Amino acid sequence: MSATHDVSNQVPPLADYDVFTTDVALVEGVQRHDAAWALDHLSDLGRKAGTLEAQEWGRLANVNEPKLVTHDRFGNRIDEVEFHPAWHDLMTVAVGNGLHASPWREPKPGAQVARAAAFSVWGHTEGGHGCPISMTHAAIPALKADQALYDEWFPRLTSLTYDPGLRNPAEKAGCLAGMGMTEKQGGSDVRTNTTRAVPAADGTYRLTGHKWFTSAPMCDMFLVLAQAPGGLTCFVVPRILPDGSRNTFRIQRLKDKLGNRSNASSEPEFDDTVGWRLGDEGRGVPTIIEMVAMTRLDCVMGSSTVMRASVANATHHARHRQAFGRYLIDQPLMEAVLADLAVESEAATTLMVRLAAAVDNQESGFKRLGLAVGKYWVCKRGPSVAVEALECLGGNGYVEDFPMARVYREAPLNSIWEGSGNVNALDVLRALGREAGAWEAFRDEVQLGVGADPRLDAALAELDRELSDTSDIEVRARRLVERMALVLQGSLLVRYAPAYVADAFCASRLGGDWGHAFGTLPPGVDAKAIVKRATPKVA
Length: 539
Known about the structure:
This protein has helices at residues 24-32, 39-49, 52-63, 85-96, 102-105, 111-122, 130-142, 147-157, 284-320, 332-360, 364-392, 403-410, 413-416, 421-434, 438-447, 454-468, 477-496, 499-510, 527-534, and strands at residues 67-71, 77-82, 177-180, 196-199, 205-210, 214-215, 221-228, 231-238, 250-254, 265-278, 322-323, 326-327. By secondary structure, it is α+β, with helices and mostly antiparallel strands. The radius of gyration is 23 Å and the shape is globular.
């Protein structure tokens, strides 16, 4: 072959490394928030996530998309979705490591923090299969609204055995849960749902309607919102009934999504479908809000993972790629970009771990506002970090053979799932106005960092002034929530991150004219130290 086909100056794959231990900010967060007992397990999972084999599972699960099979060969309606074996490989590891249930199986200090770290580490393989994992984890506390249903489903949903396929749940080694909330006419406005639930003589209900987005339709049971005689109500809807027959769950189509393509998102139709009421009639939203709170945390985790994966790929590329006589990582402007991305990623990771600790510690006031603020801001930042990191790889980043293309397509999802930006911003205003003690708890958390950096102090004082003015507050909601997120992240970083990371964050996000592209950190920050901290170490 001609010498022109010799390959040089190409970057080796980021593989065969420990995804967990090379994420220094995540390791420190786990140690700080009562989860040091999980370090060995997280490192084992991190080494698995860093293998070429696991990365290949992620690729194969996305290029071989789920396939809807509505009928069997005899013409019977079956409404099943077929997945590539790689999907099942990913799910086997996720379930086997308790990403769907470990805090409920073994509640102890740091359990949610350890689970958040594990979810993030394994999420480096690919994001789509995290959807049923997340929904199962979130469904379990919601089931406490009915002790009998909780007792029935808890051992099934917390099993560490992944058992795919539709069979009687009582005969399966393990089950998974999904949810069906939104409808085509309302989206996030679930009170406009038109699915109807009619009480039956046997104590169950019969549901009739059409859901607009129901992910992972091969789960064993779903929490579904429908209009009962007493108002919007939550129901447990299994795919297979206790007698082994199929419940009516007609999948009309699978969504052709921008990203998250390994995961099947469906439109199911209910037609006299059997459901068990969960909680009182008319209390559907309060019942399912427990699930929403937990999945919001997982959205923050997912976007933090997108950022960390983006930074890991960008710094790894820059460390090996040469241009104009030097490695990219040694060129001042590239170093500035990488440092800025690393600061954003560390701020997101630090907040993610703190929110998980708030769930562990049952900090209801801080959790209420912190989750909504974190969901809004971290999920907004994910796509920006992904696109800038992709650009660091140049043309290779834009090619589907490389991982950044899939990361980029995945990045917008978490900002949409469980309420888009406006929904979360308005929810923050609602919590500020109605949730006693929420603002005080949030401000007390920020106050812990006051005095460490004058830019943080000034930003908090400005936020107090902005919140005291209620004129046009809905119009200003996004700005207010952004400022809340930034002062919270700034407070966490000045307390927990190295001084050079906290200084770069406060100088740019709180004290400067921030708002430009990544790579515009002010002069004087220690970009080299920041990049070194963020670059994955590969043997």
